[in-house]
Each structure stands twice: as structure tokens, then as C-alpha cells.
């Protein structure tokens, strides 16, 4: 339904960049994994990944949840 979560908390896609920037300040070598469920809109996933890259993440990966996975 277009919801974005980071660290278990619902966030607005526009706040992803700042949150990732702060996380990278704590651990510059950290990689980002975007976990999308089966019904995720491709455009929304790309927006999240773009925000991660704009935040300076050198490694952004995509993972998908299997149906029934929590």
C-alpha cells in the first residue's frame, strides 16, 4: 500500500535520505538493503533506492519478501 518502514517505524519516503545519512554517519561502511513485498509498486521501490543513493550509500541492495513472510 506504499508504506515505507525503516527500523520497524513507518516513515515518509521524503525522510529516507536524512535517516540514511544519519545511519551512514554512525557507520560509513554500512550497506543498505531495501526489502520490498510482492505487491510493492516498482516506482515506489525505485524512489526509496534513489533516496538511499542520494544519502551517500555506496551499496544499495534489493530483497523481496516471499508470500506469507512477515
Structure commentary:
The protein is an alpha+beta fold. Helices cover 34% and strands 23% of the residues. The strands form 2 sheets. Strands 1-2 form a two-stranded antiparallel sheet. A hairpin with a 2-residue loop joins strand 1 (4-6) and strand 2 (9-11). Helix 1 packs across helix 2 (42-54). The radius of gyration is 12 Å and the shape is globular. It starts with a strand and ends in a 6-residue tail after the last strand.
Q: Quick recap of the structure?
A:
With 70 residues, the chain is an alpha+beta fold.
Mean pLDDT: 91
User: Can you tell me the overall shape?
Assistant: globular
List segments where confidence is low: pLDDT < 50 over at least 5 consecutive residues: none
Number of strands: 4
Hey, roughly how much beta strand do the residues contain?
15-25%
Reported for the largest beta sheet, the result is: 2 strands, antiparallel
Spatial order of the strands in the main sheet? 1-2
Round the Cα radius of gyration to an integer and report it. Answer: 12 Å
Broad structural category: alpha+beta
Taken in chain order, the helices and strands follow as EEHEHE
Residue share in helix: 25-40%
For the terminal residues, how far apart are their CA atoms? 15 Å
Q: Count the DSSP helices.
A: 2
